[in-house]
Amino acid sequence: MPYNINTLCIHCHDNSDKEHPFGAITVPIYQAATFAHPGIGESTGYDYSRESNPTRAELEKVMKGLENAYDSIACNSGMAAITLMLDLFKNGDNIICSEDLYGGSVRIFNTVGREKGISFDYVDSSDADLVEKSIKSNTKALFIETPSNPTMLVTDLHKMKEIASKHNLLLIIDNTFLSPYFCRPLELGADIVLHSATKFLGGHNDTLAGFISVKDKNISEKMRFTYKTLGLSLSAFDSYLILRGIKTLGVRLERQEKNAMKIAEFLKNHPKVSKIMYIGLKEHKGHDIHLKQASGFGSMISFVTDNEDTARKALEKIKLISYAESLGGVESLMTYPMIQTHGDVPVEVRERLGINDRFLRLSVGLEDADDLIKDLEQALA
Ligand SMILES: Cc1ncc(COP(=O)(O)O)c(C=O)c1O
Question: Which CATH architecture has domain 5-247?
């Protein structure tokens, strides 16, 4: 990386963001569906915005710098990025996935993926031996979320890389919870990294977006073809919003993490909280492994209350924190994964993972930590 991460959040790695018309400091929103050709068979570099757009191109360049990728493709949601990833696989292929996974990923795998003839095995990926034992002759990839959503299991990425290399598998990481600010899986040997940019990258709960970043030219070319063919592209305006969000990624994440640490300590000692899952806490099972592969812990906390009534009342009583899906933005949000984000995960899997009627997930935002604690205090009273 030629520049440090905080600089890369603000400038393209090759300084090409300095070349805007009239010296504009930020990239204009090129709100154009199509671009005129200078002559027959000639192009300005942009022909049609489904395929490429100058505002989106700058966003993709920034992301490519942050991920240290060969290519980063900006999609109109995290799910669009996952759709693009799925297109790499065909009838008969098998993918081994973290058992604890964002519910939307489970839904697309178990419906669209299975209809395509792809099989998915869900295993506890924090157990590397189990992952390796699960590999079959038709296994083509490992799909990992670390920390996992919502139970915060940590998977050892170095071990996953070893397994993937030994068995010739693609290593695919959903890095939504950490963003490239805290973890860059391509530098650790992953082949593909996905993000819901709706979360920390955008950071303001105001737009949907997704990324897929790759380090291989052939995979990039195949994905770019599918991307323009399926129309998964992020609009110019949304690209601008995500670019704007990324500029403050570092300061937001540092502060959100500080807030999360304070709140985790508060929840840990609360009499109505029976279990807390925050990877920043030293006692978290995956804390030490996480530190080998990431530079920070993020601001996602899950916790289990003493009974269902406490959990339901807390959701009804929070005032500053909103009871809403999603995560990673400046506004703190709390969800009930059992009926929201993970409603489509098979009941037996949910129960095994402990995602029950007492399980809450909190995305800590940028409000004052003491105000957030006061809100939780009155909601749990
Ligand atoms: C870990 C993870 N991956 C992917 C997605 C899907 O992203 P989007 O909602 O932007 O489509 C989400 C959404 O919550 C998520 O939490």
Answer: 3-Layer(aba) Sandwich (3.40)
